[in-house]
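thought: fold this chain, then report.
action: predict
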Amino acid sequence: MLSIHAIDNRGAAVASLDPIKARLLEELAEPGSASSLASKVRLPRQKINYHLRALEAVGLVSLVEERRRGNMTERLVQAKAASYVISPTVLEPVAPDPDRFADRFSAFWLLALASRMVGELGRLIAGAAKADRQLATFGIDGDLSFRSAADRAAFVEELDTAVARLVETYTSPADTPGGRRHRLIVALHPTPNESASRPVSKEKHNEH
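observation:
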């Protein structure tokens, strides 16, 4: 089971937004059947089975095992992932396009970049899982405070200079044998009031 699955088709997106189906996906972090789920969500087994079939049809759950119980066959299924995010590719005609904004101080451009990243990472993770290969990624996430807007502007300028220097140092020609292009996104935005402060953390992920 994947840690996170990026939903990239409309049918699966619609199914995941249904409250009953979303609850079933939550319960199916471990394999379950219509019978075992009926008592947890307090719905008839027949109705649970209908929703499970719908989730299976769009690829959000898969069959784990079939076993005989008396004169019945019990189907055990499991969710495809522990968590889900809906990729902007589901709304392709109106999905954000970073090229439409192209202003590094625009919140809309930052949101468009984040949307593109979700779509691209979703495809990369799915491809890596299908090929049973590792996907090398790196992320930095943390909170920091500025005494003034001037300090924030100075930080951005120094960060921009440092990143530009690193890019110039390590970027190789596109036709370099064995080379591969990578996407680099650096973001800075105010922290929502409800978020608790935490120290800067660095993680390197190798996802299947």
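thought: worth noting. Residues 96-207 form one domain.
final: tokens above.
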